[in-house]
Amino acid sequence: MSDSDGYFGAEVAARYDDVHSPMFELTTVTATVDVLARLAGDSAVLELGIGTGRIALPLAERGVSVHGIELSQAMVDQLRAKPGGEAIPVTVGDFATTRVDAPPGGFGLAYLVFNTINNLTSQDDQVACFRTTAEHLAPGGRFVVEVGVPELRRLPYGETTVMWGEGPPVWSYDVYDTATQALSSNYVRIDDGHATFRSIPFRYVWPAELDLMARLAGLRLRSRWEDWDERPFTHESRRHVSVWEKPTEGHVERTTGIEPA
After folding, report:
1. Which residues contact 117 (CB under 8 A, 6 or more apart)?
2. Per the omega criterion (within 30 degrees of 0), is the bond before 168 cis?
3. Which of 14, 194, 224, 261 counts the highest number of beta carbons within 10 A?
4. Residue 111 pLDDT more than 60?
């Protein structure tokens, strides 16, 4: 693994597009792209953690101008090897703080999908991500985040581990630290009797916490759904797709009970 690629080096990037993963199912990708294309309209969009182009490439095929930020050069190399991948501008860097050359007026949409916000392993980095994203957005632009609701309801008291993928060939489980909101996803893979282990650190985050981060960045919540089919978000939802909006020019967003002067 290259240090500069973080936890997504060449070996991981080479098999990241696992066709057996639910996130690569055509119905999932189509539903995601449908919503993002509608929200984007005629504006340019920015994907944070663009990866190998699972969403960016079909979105670009719809005629949307897609730009990306990605920490891992190995993941970008996989994107570049795909048809249409060379045409998508990608800036290599940490999406919490990396700035890109935005089109005149800014981006009309920025998005983070499939739990990627959790790759930022501190609250400070997650707050910085919202602020940096807000600076990229045009007035009226939207920021979309897809992320799971922490699975703490599945933990008996005193336990820390939730099993979520039972192989073969890969067994997967998450380990939660409720004192710090640290989370790790762990993978045991067995191929031809040879076992490998990989662990990736994350930070889980609550919907209300994300709303506060958005308010600190000057954004306001517009929509929250359970999934890309826009079903209502409820207390039973295990993930959410949230949409925050940057106020238009001349609009004063109130974040306190104090009237603006």
Report:
1. 126, 129, 145, 147, 205, 210
2. yes
3. 224
4. yes
Asked if 221 contacts 244 with a C-beta cutoff of 8 angstroms, the reply is: yes
List the structure tokens of 5.
Answer: 């690629």
How far, in Å, CA of 77 to CA of 141, rounded? Answer: 29
Phi, psi of 223 (to 5 degrees): -150, 150
Domains of the chain and CATH, by start? 3-150+205-245 (3.40.50.150), 151-203 (2.20.25)
Max Cα–Cα distance, the chain, nearest Å: 70
The pTM for the full model equals 0.90
How large is the average pLDDT for residues 124-142?
98
E strand residue ranges, 78-181: 90-92, 107-112, 137-148, 161-165, 170-177
Percent of the chain with pLDDT over 70: 93
Rounded to whole angstroms, the Cα distance separating 78 from 53 reads 8
Q: Which pLDDT value is given to residue 14?
A: 72
Mean pLDDT along residues 193-208: 95
Residue 88 has pLDDT above 70, yes or no: yes
Question: How many whole angstroms separate alpha carbon 144 and alpha carbon 69?
Answer: 15
**Residue 232 clears pLDDT 50, i.e. is over it:** yes
Residue ranges in 41-109 assigned as alpha helix (H): 56-61, 73-80
Mean pLDDT of 142-159: 95
- Let me know: does 130 contact 217? Beta carbons within 8 Å: yes
**258, two tokens:** 């104090």
Rg (CA), the chain: 19
Rounded Cα gap, residues 205 and 227, in angstroms: 17
Look at the chain and count its residues. Answer: 261
